[in-house]
């Protein structure tokens, strides 16, 4: 059994919202990976992307390695964490990976693209990212939870699935 949970999924799928609630209820320490990277660097995600996506992805890999060493945590990953196999190999070793699968039409309706560097080109870029990433999310997921219902229902389902698959101290 594993002692960490990693939520993966598209930007705007609900990882952080769902993760914060579940981590509180299950008494897991919550980490938002983007906030963790901002804390490591004292820069915002848009500032880091100005230095190049590769630079940001290198920091993301470092964050994966550091967070994988912590116990009894829940991580809301960045949407692109699945782009590097090494990230997912490190995370999967001791983590239960949950793909928060929000339908594309819901993402397009709800997402605020401000502050999201990869989405500054708008809706078309979100569609392209979805097409590029969807199969990778499914590939790495231990569990897929569809976020197309009331948020409380999705949180309840996710919490039960996580409780069944974690070994907590």
Write up this protein.
Helix 4 (53-68) packs parallel to helix 5. The protein has one domain (4-161): P-loop containing nucleotide triphosphate hydrolases (Rossmann fold). The mean pLDDT is 91. The chain has helices at residues 15-26, 33-41, 45-50, 53-68, 85-94, 104-110, 123-140, 151-165; strands spanning 4-8, 29-32, 73-76, 95-101, 143-146. The protein has a five-stranded parallel β-sheet with strand order 2-3-1-4-5, with helices on both faces. The N and C termini lie close together (12 Å). By secondary structure, the protein is α/β, with parallel strands linked by helices.
What characteristics describe this protein?
169 residues; 5-stranded parallel beta sheet; 5 strands; 55% helix; Rossmann fold; 8 helices
Secondary-structure map with pairings?
Blueprint: E1 4-8, H1 15-26, E2 29-32, H2 33-41, H3 45-50, H4 53-68, E3 73-76, H5 85-94, E4 95-101, H6 104-110, H7 123-140, E5 143-146, H8 151-165
Parallel strand pairs: 1-3, 1-4, 2-3, 4-5
Helix pairs in contact: 1-8, 2-4, 4-5
Low-confidence stretches: none
The backbone outline, from C-alpha atoms, is globular
Report the sheet with the most strands, covering strand number, pairing sense and barrel closure: 5 strands, parallel
The value of Rg in angstroms is: 15 Å
Proportion of residues in β-strands: 5-15%
Question: What is the straight-line distance between the termini?
Answer: 12 Å
| Overall number of domains | 1
Query: CATH superfamily assignment?
Result: P-loop containing nucleotide triphosphate hydrolases
If helices are DSSP runs of H or I spanning 4 or more residues, what is the number of helices? 8
| Level-2 CATH architecture | 3-Layer(aba) Sandwich
Q: Could you estimate the helical fraction of the residues in percent? A: 55-70%
- What is the spatial order of strands in the main beta sheet? 2-3-1-4-5
Number of strands: 5
Structural class: alpha/beta
Q: Would you tell me the overall average pLDDT?
A: 91
Q: State the order of secondary-structure elements, H for helix, E for strand.
A: EHEHHHEHEHHEH
CATH topology: Rossmann fold
Q: Give the C-level CATH assignment.
A: Alpha Beta
